[in-house]
Structure formats: C-alpha cells, structure tokens
Amino acid sequence: MDWWGKVVFPLRRAWEAVAARIEASRKTGTGILKLHDDVRTCGYGDVQVMWEMLRSEMEISHATRRKRICWRALAWSCRSAGVERHQRC
Predict the structure, then answer these.
(1) In angstroms, how far is the first alpha carbon of the chain from the final one?
(2) What is the spatial distance between Cα 12 and Cα 10, in angstroms, rounded to a whole number?
(3) What percent of the chain stands above pLDDT 90?
(4) Dist. CA 65–CA 9, nearest whole Å
(5) Are residues 53 and 85 both part of a single domain?
(6) Residue 37 sits in which domain range?
(7) How far is 81 from 60, CA to CA, in rounded Å?
(8) DSSP letters of 35-73?
C-alpha cells in the first residue's frame, strides 16, 4: 500500500490545483472580454486609444490571415483538379 500513497496522493493534489485554477478563471470572467470591459470603463483617454490601436491591429492581422488561408485552399483545389502549376486558376 506504500505505492498507493506515492501515486494517488500527488495525483490528487495536482487535480485539486488544476480544479482550483479552472474555478478561479470561471469566477473572474474570460480574459479578453474582462479586459475590454475594464478598458471601456476606464476614464483615461490614452488607455482607450491604445485599446483601439490593438483592436484595429488584430482585425488587420486576422483579415490578412484569412486571405492567405483562402489562397492556399484555392491553390490546393487547382492542384487536385489537375491544373498545371504554371497556370493560374
């Protein structure tokens, strides 16, 4: 039974730590949404300007990533359809 204590009790302690972190994160809200609410209620204008800069940068990077994914899908469909590489769709 000595091995039982060596295996089960550390696993139980680790499980309790993980469960406590999950529970704490549920209580505090979801990260970016809580941050958005905090920034929106903040009275400092420079904080709100910085938030807008971050938000617009995220939108731009997301749009370029979406365009690249579409181009890869198009290139993949051209290859699977038997179109030669030097021809464009």
Answers:
(1) 69
(2) 5
(3) 0
(4) 46
(5) yes
(6) 1-41
(7) 32
(8) HHHHHHH---HHHHHHHHHHHHHHHHHHHHHHHHHHHHH
Whether residue 86 sits in one domain with residue 52: yes
Amino acid at 45: G
What's the total number of domains in the chain? 2
pLDDT of residue 40: 78
pLDDT number for residue 59? 80
| Residue 59 sits in the same domain as residue 26 | no
- Write down how long the chain is: 89
68 or 47, which is more confident?
Answer: 47
Rounded distance between C-alpha atoms, residue 66 and residue 30, angstroms: 25
* pLDDT at 22 exceeding the cut of 70: yes
Contact 34, 28 (CB under 8 A): yes
Placement of tokens 């807008």 in the chain: 52
Q: In which element (H, E) is residue 19 found?
A: helix 2-28
